[in-house]
Amino acid sequence: MVIRFSDVSFSYSAADEPILRHVDLTIGEGEFCLVVGATGSGKSTLLGAINGMVPHFTGGRLSGTVTVDGRSTRDNPPRELADLVGMVGQNPSASFVTDAVEDELAYAMENLGVSPQAMRRRVEDTLDLLGLHELRHRPLLSLSGGQQQRVAIGAVLAAAPRVLVLDEPTSALDPAAAEEVLATLTRLVHDVGMTVVIAEHRLERVVPFADRIILVPGSGDELIVGRPQDVMAGSPVAPPLVDLARLAGWDPIPLSVRDARRLAEPLRLRLAGLEPGPPTTTTPASTPEPIAEAEHVSSVYVTVMALNQVDLRIHRGEVVAVMGRNGSGKSTLLGLLAGLRRPAKGRVRICGQVPGDLPPRKLIKLVGMVPQDAGVLLYCSSVEDECETADGECGLPPGTTAATLDRVLPGVPRRHHPRDLSEGQRLALALAVILAPAPPVLLLDEPTRGLDYPSKDRLVRLLRELAADGHSVVIATHDVELVARVADRAVVLAEGEVVSDGAAREVVCHSPVFAPQVAKVLAPEAWLTVDEVRAALAGSSR
Amino acid sequence: MTAPGRILHPAAWWVWAATMGVAAVRTTNPMLLAFIAVVVVFVVAARRSAAPWSRSLAVFFRLGLIVIVIRVVVQVVFGYRLPGHVLFTLPQVPLPGWAAGVSIGGPVTLESVLQAAVDGLRLAVILLCFGAANSLASPYRLLRCLPTVLYEAGVAVTVALTFAPELVITIGSVRDARRLRGRPTRGIAGLRGLAIPVLEGALDRSLQLAASMDARGYGRRFAAPAHRRLATGATALGLLLVMLGVFGALDPGSVPSGGIPVLAVGAVLLAMGMTAGGRRSPRTRYRPDVWRLPEWGVSLSGCAVSGAFVIAGVVGVQGLQFTPYPLHAPTLPLLLCIGILAGLLPAVLAPSPRDPGYRETDGEMLVLAQREADPSVGVPRVARW
Amino acid sequence: MTPLPRWRWVVPTAMLIGAAAAALGPAGPDALVPFKAATAAAADSVYVALVVDLGQGYGGSPRVVSGCVRVPPGKSGYDALTAFTQQMNWALPSYNNAGLLCTIDGYPQNGCGQVVGSGYDYWSYWHGDPGTWTYSSAGASRTMQTGDVEGWRFEDPGHGNPTDPPPTAAPDFASICASDMTSTTSAPTTATPTTIATTNTGPMGSNPAGPAGSTPPGSIASSPTSGSGQEPTNPGRPVPGSGSGSPTTTRPTASGGSTAHTGNSGSPPPRTEALARAGSVQHNGGDSVPLLVGGFIVVIIGCGALYRWRRHPGVP
Q1: Dihedral sign, CA of B128, B130, B134, B137?
Q2: What domain range is A522 assigned to?
């Protein structure tokens, strides 16, 4: 028995509702434990309690005891448990203390007072274990996201803890890098016998690896703990694969694409010959003038071509997904379209005007962009103030933004500070603020980072409505499920150049990296989402 | 000379750069100053690594140019006129009697401009030496060399060093966010409304960093806190007094009795604090930098240069100082120049920087990956150096 | 890895700098000094009498030196002082950043305008009117006219002077400059305005041949202007004022034979021996070779640094 929660309740203050209520939980040795739940349900709190972060660092009232290997977090603040529990956050670069990989790995051991010889040995072992030996002298800022996340894991690993706690480690990573990190974690569990507790939103990546799933329903309800198949069968948050399994009535619920394909033969037969819904794609030849276009744009970052002769045309009512690895230039392209930068070569036009030359007031009526960190757009001290300021600045009748917010996400508390809102609520507020002047072109940069499935559903619905209203939407993302559900067209960038540009279905379906789970299961048929399958089945059964 | 890839002890670079700076202080001969400057730049060019701070020399170079310009402008507007060839005359602003020592406007002579330019050049060369030390010595490794008693201060400075580039990026993204919200980004209106979001972002990041450091054992098991605090306090006070004493020694008359007693007291306090605080520290050090022959070579080469200048000053070598009036070309004491060439030794003695293992453009692309969140990617920048 | 076009400009620039340095060389450092433009006939020059009193604290002798200098019209008192020091073969006067005169002939050795007790050690400036000295609180920037008497006295309050006393020689233009003025009119040979361009044919310390009629160094001035008070000079030392035959190339139009009127003692100022100051006096034409060589080395090292900088850092 490594981790034990005994009747643990926690609330941030006496007045608030308890986030965790009477939690009794045991996590055994060598388990890969996945914690799922909606945002704000208490996943991070649960993870923080293992370490002692909650309540020593975050404040609040914790009753009951959490013991890790016999040591209680009541008496031991996180630094005393550092040799037992290692914690890795979402944003690895925010946790780096030194500048080189080797020094970062040794930092925890220095704090623990490990002898220099032992430190040397352990650093070498950690480098080997995580495949970082070629990177050992590299400055941390020069590593890719996946490498940085591995270094962050290594930094806590070098202290030889017995438990590894990770809070959304793959949210910032592209699919390939996420695979890297998850494979490393699996290896740690199986080869080293470590206990790994991980919280994730994008379940489709992690569920196949988990030994146990802890579902945190939120609002203090009882945790549901069990085998993945059992928990997923009834879970409100589930990856598309599980939805498909429920739809098709598979039992036991398959958790990986391989298992699903074995059960999918009857479903494939039923779907043979059915069309996956009305075609939503519009080929460029048949459409009118593009509403936004980037012609042969090149953009330079220091001496590197961030974008090299990229062409992009966007038409009215189209939803375009721009995909690619981190560093392929997605954000740069969006920045050019939003008028934040001027291209070094080529030109950008939106509705005939050059966005880079427009003053901000005119720009917001033409194109709206929500950057990766939506919170950076919000700078008032309450939601109410934010809406009013947005109305005033855009010259809109008062109440427009508030009405837009209600349309995007009803029930956002008006008095809260924007930084106190959940991810989904913050994104909704940012969208409301940007959409209030009704720009014809909307740009979203990684909107689904940190969003749970219900929020994602809402976003998908909203984007569909906007497209139907005539707005054009460009999304830079590597969330393939989102692309599958909402995009008409997909553009793939690699190293600043366009690799493929076409109907979303064609681009995404047969790619091993970008294919959604449903497509992988039902290959070679080109089905993207569970909704399509459901609609087709319903249509055929009539 | 040594295995390529070994990193020279950062203190050695600082000693070398400081002594070159001391040499620059002792002369106003523009040719000698130029000599020191090119020697310093050559060593930096030969031995800098691919790390991000290795480009800081260019910043200090530009700063030095700005210093020269400011110095000349101040002299033109405010300075006393050295006699000589009048270049042009500014309208003289009459000042009241109590400001009798100051003049605004008046004839501007070539001599006074040259005097100011040479003065500024000296400051610029000192800045260049400082920039060279910044470029060559990793600030993080320098902080790791601090005695244990000053560990917390060292950590604070390290974190600040990590934060500064992040802050620049945050400012960029906040500015873009303002543009996206339709607010002005230029001018005074652009500056207001930048502070709060940037500070909020910095606060968030610092909290994350604090949590991560706490989770990795920072601040663990410190025995006898009162005892350590005393030692840290004594060290800090000692450093302050030493600094005051050195200032007094360099500028006679500013500190009573030349600053020597202050220096002595400070040194004693420092020694006491460091010995007391150095024992019984629970932290260990991973692969601390060693001080070997190359370090000695580098430090001593710098000391040789400054020693040559000090001796030249004492002996009375002609050409050490530049007299603008009357105007004539400066002489150049050749032996002293050869002494300055000793400052080139680190380009040979120091271990050559290790191959970073990736092409710089790759590194930039990967940095790009990290900055995907930051819309300031895509800005064409001026040539790096 | 370094693409050639990027630093292709370095080589032509280096050549340009080298060519400029070479062109400058033969002209010598004096080419930089427009002050030494050719002056017109002697009649245009201005005669100024100068008295320099090194103050009571001065241990050597002579303490008061006076002499007559001839400067082109339009020059200031500073220029006259400089001419005087060159004429006497002294070190040039030095100034601090604020324009305050610090040293004449290297005296005082340390400090410039230091606070001493309740006063200052500094060089005070006096203007001589017949029979009296007038303290001048403005600097010596006014244009000199023939007949001006300039006085400089080093005030050192530590030696008991209650107020700023004037120089202890009489402000008598006629007596100081009489010989010079008469010599100008009578001896055309020695009264050649030295256009320094002619005296600086060689930068290598060669003793430029002075204008015709100048006396070789070391000998007693045989010009008819050697009037009263011509003392035997130390052998080997150029006689003060023995014409532009001395190796100093930056001498303005000092005519031959201006004498050093000493105040208290009769010997020519053995200044260098008495003071042993820092910064020796000789300003000779040997300046420019080290300068050229040094400049060349600077350019070489600079180009090397530039080239190295452009290369991929981190690659040995």
Answers
A1: positive
A2: 239-270+517-542
Instruction: Report the 10 Å Cβ neighbour count for B160.
Output: 11
Look at residue A472 and tell me if it is in a domain.
yes
Q: Indicate whether A174 belongs to any domain.
A: yes
Q: What is the CATH number of the domain that holds A376?
A: 3.40.50.300
Shared domain check, A358 and A486: yes
Architecture of domain C40-199+208-281: Beta Complex (2.170)
Q: Do both A221 and A327 map to the same domain?
A: no
Q: What is the DSSP string of A179-203?
A: HHHHHHHHHIIIII--EEEEE-S-H
> How close B347 comes to chain A (CA, Å)?
22
Complex ipTM > 0.90? no
Examine the domain organization and report whether A166 and A213 are in the same domain.
Answer: yes
Confidence label for B377 from pLDDT (cuts 50, 70 and 90): very low
Residue A188 lies in a domain: yes
Chain C residues in contact with B42 by the CB 8 A cut-off are 301-302, 304-305, 308
* Burial track B42-67 (b if 16+ CB lie within 10 A, e otherwise): bbbbbbbbbbebbebbbebbebbeeb
The verdict on a CB contact (< 8 Å) between C297 and B35 is yes
Contacts of B331 in chain C (CB under 8 A): 287, 290-291
What one-character DSSP code corresponds to residue A444? E
Which residue from B155, B177, B284 is facing A115, i.e. has the nearest CB?
Answer: B284
Q: Please check the confidence at residue A468 and state whether its pLDDT lies above 80.
A: yes
Number of domains in chain A: 3
A261 and A302 assigned to the same domain: no
A407-413 contacts at long range (C-beta below 8 A, 24 or more positions apart): A407/A432, A407/A462, A408/A432, A408/A435, A408/A458, A408/A462, A409/A455, A409/A458, A412/A383, A413/A383
Phi, psi of A14 (to 5 degrees): -60, -30
Mean pLDDT value across residues A299-313: 80
**Among partner residues A53, A137, A141, which is closest to B367 by beta-carbon distance?**
A141
| Banded pLDDT at C200 (limits 50, 70, 90) | very low
* Same domain for A329 and A295: yes
Smallest CA-to-CA distance from A356 within A344, A373, A341 is with A341
Same domain assignment for residues A485 and A412: yes
Are the beta carbons of A507 and A353 closer than 8 angstroms?
A: no
Query: Is A538 within a domain?
Result: yes
Note whether A touches C: 3 CB pairs or more under 8 A: no
Q: What is the pLDDT of residues A194-237, one digit of tens each?
A: 999 999 888 888 998 999 999 998 777 889 999 998 999 888 88
What are A486's two structure tokens? 């909402």
Cα distances (angstroms) measured from residue B83 to each of A443, B75, B107, B113, B251: 66, 13, 9, 11, 28
Pick A327's closest partner by Cβ from B183, B221, B365. Answer: B365
Please tell me the distance from the alpha carbon of residue C9 to that of residue C4, in angstroms, as a whole number: 10
Q: Which amino acid is at A362?
A: K
CB atoms within 10 A of CB A287: 14
Same-domain check for residues A72 and A152? yes
Contact A51, A87 (CB under 8 A): yes
- Residue, of C45 and A438, whose pLDDT is higher: A438
Nearest to A47 by CA among A5, A96, A108, A76: A5
Residue type, B16: W
DSSP state of C76: B
Task: Compute the mean pLDDT over every residue in chain B, rounded to the nearest whole number.
Answer: 80
Mean pLDDT, residues A385-406 taken together: 88
Q: Do C309 and B41 touch (CB under 8 A)?
A: yes
Same domain, A120 and A103: yes
CA B20 to each of CA B17, B132, B346, B352, C298: distance values in angstroms, whole numbers, following the listed order: 5, 10, 12, 21, 16
- Separation of alpha carbons A375 and A423, rounded Å: 9
In B, minimum Cα distance to C296 occurs at B35
By three-state DSSP, how is residue A8 classified? strand
Q: Which of A114-128, A314-328, C163-177, C267-281 has the lowest mean pLDDT?
A: C267-281
